[in-house]
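Progress against Task 2.4 (sequence-to-structure conversion) is shown through the following example record, which the project officer requested during the mid-term review.
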Amino acid sequence: MLAIAGFMVIVAGIIAIDAPPLWRKKQKKELWIFFILLFFGTTLGILHFSIHKIPNPVNWIIIVYKPFSDMIATWLK
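Structure tokens generated for the chain above:
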């Protein structure tokens, strides 16, 4: 729980540093993208520090490309 609290302090610091210049320059689209990406990163960080296991994205890539790799390997034999 302490790790999640520390992580949220870091997220608040990132918002305090990066969001005000975007707001002052009226960069609304960039601000939306900033908060969307920060939301996804914060969600993954909280899941990482909690009990949940997060699967490795490389495993997903292997699952998607494995059939193509096998098909090409059989063609090249």
